[in-house]
Amino acid sequence: MLLTPKNHFTEDIVRARDLVAHARTLPPGILQDDVQRAAWMMAVGACDAYFSDAYADLISRALRAKDLEPAIGIPDRLNNLKVPVTAILREARGGWRWRMAARELMEDQNVLSLEKIRALFNHFFRKGHKLLNQDTIGSWILHRDAKSRLFGLTATRYRALLPVDKADAKKASLEQFEEHFNGIFQRRHDCIHNCDRPRVALQTISLVTVEKTTADIEFLVCRCHEALVDEFPEYLRTLRFGASTRNQVCQ
Predict the structure, then answer these.
(1) I need a surface site. Which of 16, 65, 221, 238 has the fewest CB within 10 A?
(2) In angstroms, rounded to a whole number, what is the distance separating the alpha carbons of residues 104 and 116?
(3) Per-domain residue ranges for the chain?
(4) Tell me: the pLDDT tens digits for 202-239?
């Protein structure tokens, strides 16, 4: 499940890193900086593509489950999807029809804010389980790949906190995390829409900053991917789809 979106992301993030490696071979100057900007845009584009494709993937699997067990009720959000008529008429077999329909739903959208990611994917979580909230951030702070720049504190410092202080720490860390990625996504917007000149002067950029940004994007996507893979089968189970259906649509 979600193998294609994840594999494509992995390939695309390598392309971003290859651009950074190429930039290192260039003399300092505008050309080197612009290759770094291209790497930034590639990395954020890889993130956007992953979440768009992952959403289409999960929608198609949910619709496929409904196709296999028509008597099972599904949430209004799925019932009210504006699936293109061409998808209904399409003669493709199995889940391919629904996959193409879901991709068409996302064709003109981007997923470049944590709020948008929540809005799309929390639908596929069980009650009491959400993506990118204070409960999520607690485990992410402790992850082996976590960096203090993402959360404003280290795993060691977080572990040392008293239980009564951890709630405030998680709240502050989530705010830091959101602010950090808002800046990453905004910089991509600046590069694409005004050549990285949001005001008068061209913004400075460095290889170290681009390398860290690429690593941070990979951290976000990988943690979300793990959560989605774990949670989606449980989501189908709570809707009362049978084990056979879950096995078919989640393989």
Answers:
(1) 238
(2) 18
(3) 3-250
(4) 999 999 999 999 999 999 999 999 999 999 999 999 99
